[in-house]
Design a protein that fits this description.
By secondary structure, the protein is an all-alpha fold. It has one domain (21-148). The protein is 79% helix and 0% strand. The protein contains five helices and no strands. Helix 1 (2-45) packs antiparallel against helix 5. The termini are far apart.
Length: 164
């Protein structure tokens, strides 16, 4: 009886983490697009770097940090990490390959770019350089994030097993 209760509690906990991970995606996209918009208007509008620009990329970074934490909880407490032991067979299955390798790798790369980009923006000396670095680092990050989200329409537009 005790084991059944533990399994039930773990399942509820994992469902909660999955729901939070799914909801947090929208915060990441919202703050990322806000940051990208600020970068574009800063580069093409030649405007000063403002506290709002700093706030947008800070919130983008924080939302990415929370999303990474939730994703790592899911990765290591579910069976995804265990599937690395049988990598050959998992690479043949597009669903397993996506969640075992592609999603995780591209999202971690995007997370690294967000952190490097934030540090680079803070070190830039001119407003023009800050906006340009925002556009480069956060633009690539948003692109990687958009490509590696498991969208429901992913297979219909050919984003399934044909990417890698």
């Amino acid at each position: 009886m005790y084991m059944i209760a533990l399994i039930f509690v773990k399942n509820i906990y994992m469902q909660l983490v999955l729901v939070l991970h799914n909801l947090m995606r929208w915060a990441v996209l919202l703050f990322g697009l806000w940051t990208l918009f600020n970068a574009l208007t800063g580069v093409f509008g030649k405007r000063n770097f403002t506290a709002g620009d700093n706030r947008s990329n800070m919130l983008f970074m924080i939302s990415c940090d929370i999303q990474l934490l939730l994703g790592l909880i899911l990765y290591f407490t579910n069976s995804w990490f265990d599937r690395l032991k049988d990598l050959g067979n998992n690479m043949k299955d597009p669903y397993n390959r996506f969640f075992t390798m592609e999603h995780m790798s591209l999202m971690i790369l995007a997370w690294i770019l967000v952190h490097v980009g934030r540090a680079s923006v803070k070190r830039a000396n001119t407003d023009k350089a800050k906006h340009k670095r925002m556009l480069i680092f956060f633009g690539i990050s948003i692109l990687l994030i958009l490509v590696s989200i498991p969208w429901p329409f992913r297979e219909k537009i050919g984003m399934g097993s044909h990417w890698f």
